[in-house]
Amino acid sequence: MTTIKPTVNVEAQAIEAKKAAKKLAMLTTEEKNQTLNLLADKLEAEYEAILEANEKDLENGRQQGFEDAFMDRLALSKERIYDFANGLREVAELEDPTGHVLSDWTLENGLGVEKVTVPLGVIGMIYEARPNVTVDSTGLALKSGNAIVLKGGSSAINSNRAIVEVLHHGLEETKVPKEAVQFIDSTAREATQQLFTMKEHVDVLIPRGGGSLISAVVNNATVPVLETGVGNCHVYIDKEAEVEKALNILVNAKTDRPAVCNAAETLIVHKDWLNENLDALTKALKDNDINVHGDEEIVNLMPDAVEAGESDWANEYLSKDIAIKTVNDAAEAINHIETYGTKHSEAIVTENADTAKMFKSLVDAAAIYHNASTRFTDGGALGFGAEIGISTQKLHARGPMGLPALTTVKYIMSGNGQVR
Fold this sequence. Notes:
- This protein is of the alpha/beta class.
- The chain is built from 15 helices and 16 strands.
- The strands form four sheets. It has a seven-stranded parallel β-sheet, sandwiched between helices. The chain has a four-stranded parallel β-sheet with strand order 5-4-3-6, with helices on both faces.
- Helix 12 (296-301) links the parallel strand 9 (291-294) and strand 10 (306-307).
């Protein structure tokens, strides 16, 4: 088989991004904000060109038989593009995360020390069929003083190319060098693999997409990785949960946007609550067209349920399918989450404060909810503006990653000839 070679020079692009990052670090907050607002205007003004390119990707997706959830993430509209633009304006309104003196002190010898926030430098962004990531990650990178190298999936190549062309046109009118936004215009796998190893020029890689993509980046990159994770999220309905509250949370977490990573994929339900509220739960599931994959007890109680296999408990359905597990107590629920969860978002519905405290303390996840939907694990929903991803790891950043996650620190010493 002939190997397809990338048609772009990834190393050269990474070098250009690194040079541009030095210039970015010298810009004022006002200059960065003006840039984001101008880019927002450009996206709105040139939305038709982006939609024309997106239609090529959608047609290719239809020919290849992509699933509905995948097509939903890929599809753009005038409204979605305007949302991207407004996201940039929202980021412009946020506080600049760089240049903050986190702490300062003076040593006995008179040497002054400051711990200051600074940009990471160059961010490599690897993602799948999500054209919005092209805009969101660029806005967050530029506001935090970082250059960015974008490597989107082949399914969105036309959409991403058109978006970056618009962004570059806009940057030509600003003090931000257009080289600060690099787009790897290639569908060759080798181009992505090259980015994995650009440790001399790229400071961090951030993957966004399915489990296979994330695993490929984590397992093969020599560049440090800020790992985002898939979302096998659970809602646990405790025996002391209010019925209406529990059902509203479950339905929202499952159906509001089934194809996103903070949607609930598994319902864990206390057997006592289930016995008392089976009819209400069954009706809520049926009314919202939710397909049930259940354990033995659920299959016996719900006529339309299919038996869940081992893969169902670990599955990120990204659809209106849900797995349902019955438990005898909260400890059993926590153990199930520990076994199958992805450390993304987990929820408990209960009126018992002690049970909620135990759940919040023992469940290991980036986001824990008590009597609320998992759908709030989102940068915009939490007031961060756009997000560059949701980290499920523990080092440097965890949860929705907004502007502060794209900075590191630098120690700055000021002296008067001190030597050691």
